[in-house]
Write a sequence for this structure.
């Protein structure tokens, strides 16, 4: 009888562990089409202008490239180019419940709150100043 109870407990626990999947975590992947393209940082100190020495992001379907910066240090580094895969997601929510939209960089595991509205992209990470980018009509190699 003890053997049967132990075996039954083991089967139940195994079933519970192996039945978990990504949907159970409540993550909902978002369509990346609105991100794809070249985004250039708006420099507020230069009255909202963009120049070749500002930070830029290039999103493709499966990776993001930063120009003049580094993902892991959040630093502006002129001439530095860094590449990483990324996730773009939110969480399952009840109707009328607001949930953040997340941009997560796989290389360092950093997460940013992201907002895209028209040709503007806003990135915010707790403890850092938010950054605003504008979508460029041009894509560089």
């Amino acid at each position: 009888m003890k053997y049967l109870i132990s075996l039954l407990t083991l089967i139940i626990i195994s079933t519970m562990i192996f039945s978990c999947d990504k949907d159970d975590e409540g993550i909902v992947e978002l369509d990346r089409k609105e991100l794809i393209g070249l985004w250039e940082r708006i420099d507020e100190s230069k009255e909202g202008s963009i120049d070749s020495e500002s930070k830029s992001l290039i999103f493709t379907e499966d990776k993001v490239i930063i120009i003049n910066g580094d993902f892991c240090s959040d630093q502006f580094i002129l001439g530095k180019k860094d590449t990483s895969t990324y996730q773009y997601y939110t969480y399952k929510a009840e109707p009328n419940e607001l949930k953040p939209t997340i941009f997560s960089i796989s290389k360092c595991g950093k997460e940013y709150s992201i907002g895209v509205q028209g040709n503007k992209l806003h990135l915010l990470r707790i403890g850092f100043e938010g950054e605003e980018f504008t979508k460029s009509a041009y894509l560089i190699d």
Remarks:
- Confidence is low (pLDDT under 50) at residues 16-24.
